Amino acid sequence: MSDTIVPLTTKKDWMSDQEVRWCPGCGDYGIMQAVQQLMPDLGIAPENTVFISGIGCSSRFPYYMNTYGMHSIHGRAPAIATGVAVARPDLDVWVITGDGDSLSIGGNHLIHALRRNVNLTILLFNNRIYGLTKGQYSPTSETGKVTKSTPMGSIDHPFNPLSVALGAEASFVARTHDLDRKHMMEVFRQAHAHKGASFVEIFQNCNVFNDSAFDDITSRNAREEMMIDLKHGQPIRFGADGHKGVVMGSDGQLRIMEVADVGEDALLVHDAHREDPGLAFALARLSHDDHSATPFGVFRDVQRGDYGSMVGAQLAQASEKKGPGDLHALLRSNGTWSVD
Amino acid sequence: MTDTEERQDRQPEQISHVVVRFAGDSGDGMQLTGDRFTSVSALFGNDLSTFPDYPAEIRAPAGTVNGVSSFQVHISDHDITTPGDAPNVLVVMNPAALKADLHRLEQGGLLIINTDAFEERDLHKAGYDHNPLHDDFLSQYRVVEIPMTTLTQRATEPLGVKPRDAERSKNLFALGLVSWLYSRPTEPTIAWIENKFKDLVKESNLAAFRAGFAFGETTELFDHPYEVKPAQLPAGEYTNITGNVALAWGLVAAGQLAKLPVFLGSYPITPASDILHELSKHKHFGVRTVQAEDEIAAAGMALGSAFAGHLGVTTTSGPGVALKSETMSLAVSLELPLILVDIQRGGPSTGLPTKTEAADLNIAMFGRHGEAPLPIVAAYSPANCFDAAIEAARIALKYRTPVILLSDGYLANGSEPWKLPVPEDLPDISVSFQTEMNHTDAEGNPEYWPYLRDPDTLARPWAIPGTPGLMHRVGGIEKQDGSGNIDYSPANHSKMVHLRADKIAGIAADIPPATITGDADADVVLLGWGSTWAAIDAAVQRTRRAGTKVAWIHLTHLNPWPPNLGDLLRPFKRILVPELNMGQLCRLVRAEYLVDATPITKVQGLPFTSAELEAAIQEALS
Description:
- The structure holds 2 protein chains of 2 kinds.
- By secondary structure, chain A is of the alpha/beta class.
- In chain A, 29% of the residues lie in helices and 18% in strands.
- Chain A has 12 helices and 12 strands.
- In chain A, the strands form 2 sheets. Chain A has an 8-stranded mixed beta sheet with strand order 2-1-3-4-6-5-11-7, sandwiched between helices. In chain A, strands 8-9-10 form a 3-stranded antiparallel beta sheet.
- In chain A, a hairpin with a 5-residue loop joins strand 9 and strand 10 (254-258).
- In chain A, helix 3 packs across helix 4.
- By secondary structure, chain B is an alpha/beta fold.
- At the A-B interface, strand 1, strand 2, helix 2, helix 4 and helix 11 of A face helix 2, strand 9, helix 10, helix 12 and helix 14 of B.
- Strand 2 of chain A pairs parallel with strand 19 of chain B.
């Protein structure tokens, strides 16, 4: 797709003049680089692009983009972005959020933006920790996590962000990580191309409060055996020379097997366009921790009418039926009488 | 009872006004009955004022006092503002309604009773240990007992309507009867029934309505009908309007006058939901409505739409105001236009969802974190909600600020005739979006400063997404005046807090000065706001007719106040502040002007009666 678009802008056009204030070594830098590098390829203009964020480290993101932007309220970005996107379907609206922002204080807004299929590209920076408030456990922190607010270990069961999104009827669900710019760019590109709500979980390292949380999966040494790259229409296999693959057992459970043991034909073929979200859900639940093989890429990408367009269509339909609004007629619509 | 000779001439007796109250079970259709009686009176040309009074439960246990739903309407041949203190006529459909509303009926008033509902079981449910119809309990009223259910069943039987179904039409029988009693034209009601209902239900309702009308005409229970002539209102075209519909239309009009699309983010809540319903009907005006997942999102969506260049509105009632508080604070910081409509109800918490109160002035004034002043506009009558909505939008747009518009349950559901404004005469409230760079950087390059203020209004420019070259970021973090860049420095924060306060305070020069109604040389002045307008108006008129001097100032802008308010108040010996709360405005006025204002409070979920205020004036004078 990028081959057909002549970039009208360069990466520099998308960078604001603001000094970036994340901690040195933060995973957010890599994500910002990927977004800024991707933007020229999308063939869109900075003035037609809006970044809305909530509160948290990741939510400083809009300040660094030379677009329209709002650093809003903790958890409320999906709601505010819904207002922007419904008012102005002509705009490209992105939501930047974190695991605490979108899955704790803003959980309600996230699920409803997904359910409504508002045309938003939602990037969730998941570092499994509260960074800005200096290191409390988050709704994606693993059980047993020792933090300032959980000195004896967290007893909370964590959310799986992709499961939440799929359960909330999301039409586009994907996962990527902050160490692979190319992978991020490809996932963001597809998320942006999707009409409706796109949800992308990004494994993001907080090197200050939760360092190396995803190392067992995403570090250069681990990737080959631990990252399962989902590709639509292809058998799901990974590892050196693709020696491992995902198989659905007769009990409906997905399992990771040696391809040599089960044969290539037994491998599950990934279908991101399946209407039924069951398979995407099963893939989202394939890994239960940060130490086992984990799928990445686009889990689900199905078409459903986007909210802003549908609101606009009803307006057009009403105008078609009733003609343009006329205050004279409105004031008389409940019956009138005259006094001479 | 009259003798035959007198009865032959049953010409209507002319009366100047009458207050009728329909009371029954929630399932008896009393709101509809009252509404129809109101509509036909409006079309007939009476001045009127209504007061729907219903329980919070959709269907409380049938036949209980908790489930009583009432509708009071005052019709008149002259200018009136209140739904009347005490009904002259009370129609009760069951014992619970009698129990709930009898105390309101004037001494000697007409009491029309559906006797079919006075079986032992009904009496028990209403908490009567005796049948009040069987002793002298009601001797101080003119009682007319009518078996309305039976008569309705008989009237509809030839149509094949089952007795149980027929019972549902008995409110139309009552409407027919009262329509005859007050010489209301029948055609509008018949046309309405034919339009609203279908098939057997339509036929049944028509038969019941006609039977009720004929019953009044042919029986000897009433001497003669009455007639309230049309009021001599100023010439013009009128419609009967409730506060919520007027407010919704005002928002539609504001969008037209501002040349901006209206965006409503709202979450259902009594008594504000009707604004969401009404605005949802007007998509052909470009009005977008989103029923949000919660009150917070509703406000957030409205703010997002404002950032994108729409007229953002969110509507709610008390508990919802609390939930929107953080968004209002952000809107103060972002300096974007936003309208929060609060249809006040009895609180705290769920309180009295269907009853009126005006106790949200404090939360409107102060219910945000940090120093976050914002303008407050308060509607004073159902029809005035239209103008108040336009005024709220004017201030929000011109000053790039969130505005709170206060109405209440009494205004929201009450109705009055409204002389239609001429749309062409309504104010132009349009503002310009910023389209050009407005500053030059150190190297001489043009740039856009989102917080470079208009020196007169202190409003910042409004550059909306889609405008080339003006990309900028706003946020809740303190920003540098001018550039809008993040700036935590002590001096800048102090400057910004003061600038935001000065901007709001400066609006005082842009609102109408306060005026005195009544006697400027009186000893006593009433200072009112919001829906107390009607009762104060009636009380002031009555007091002055009785030869006592009294003055009245009514506020439509509660923040900032008209700049002349202090000077107007100080000369009076007594300042009385009637409020449907515990004295919220009174305390503010005392603090601001160091005047000895006295509160007159009422927190019963009911509006003031004019008699209560008249008594308070007399007491202050004695």
